[in-house]
Amino acid sequence: MTTAQAQVQADLAAMSAAAASSVKLAADTSGAVKRLALSQEAALKAAAVSAQAWLTANYPPTPVPTPTPPPTPTPGVGPSGIPMPTTSPAGWGKILFSDDFTTPQGPGPWPGTWDGGMKYSGGPYSSRWWTNPPGWKDTSGAGTYEYQNLSVSNSCLIAHLATVGGVPQVACPQPLLNGPDTEGSGGLYGRYDVCFKADSGLNGFKTAFLLWPDDEVWADGEIDFPEGDLGSTIHGYVHNITGNPSHNDLGVSTSTVYTSWHVATIEWTAAGVTFILDDKNLGSTATSPKVPMHWNLQIETDRKSVV
Fold this sequence. Notes:
Layout: H1 3-14, H2 20-27, E1 32-35, E2 47-49, E3 53-56, E4 95-99, E5 105-108, E6 113-114, E7 120-121, E8 129-131, E9 144-145, E10 150-153, E11 156-159, E12 162-164, E13 167-170, E14 173-175, E15 190-196, E16 205-213, E17 223-229, E18 233-239, E19 248-257, E20 262-269, E21 272-277, E22 280-285, E23 293-301
Parallel strand pairs: 1-15, 9-13
Antiparallel strand pairs: 2-11, 3-4, 5-10, 6-7, 8-14, 10-11, 12-13, 15-20, 16-17, 16-23, 17-18, 18-19, 20-21, 21-22
């Protein structure tokens, strides 16, 4: 159990007589936001992930006054023109994790030197980020994950998606929400936002940014948003947790394409899951995964061949 989860359980016990809305507020423990840009380079298909990332912990306000912190410098807006938030939305608590990607790195090994197993070290991001090791296959089986195809510049985490030797190379960065060497470890509930954009000509590659159970049991839940082929439109899915995870408790489809900047939001609470795109509520479900989940920023192939 993480410290945040233990604190929330203590909060809930102390608030047993409180209103339902306050209990819900105390139960929503963590969330994340990430900026994503997908762009094309001259000689190959590429996805650029502009990744100013932040997480929120949803605690109720404390009655104890706290000192006023010093002013927070305004972060750079990056190519999106949308600044990284420095405060949480109403109803959510402190920001737990942020990364403005201000330290250039690569292109080359990212987040650091790979040890041949599950660890990365020596890079400016290796204590805060992880990525699927090279050789792992993506969901369709057509793509292979890489770490040499990731770099940072202009406040962007850039995933260079290309077909090399007939094999599409893809990427799946993961923020280490619980500290160094905690890959596969997330939190219970939260708000996750991602700002993203794709160039034209990336058909056959897709985003499937997902919350995935720490216990690796699909039947315990899967939340995907934004999901879709980069040459098409944005979708979102909450998989069923009461019988067949191949079915969806919520599926949303939009006419919104990837080729301009958007902000997609997952709000995951004990009461349900809500998808928001550019501040527009797309729909909610009353079912909700009940286990800790980690956030994979999965960029993969959409089918067996990449155009």
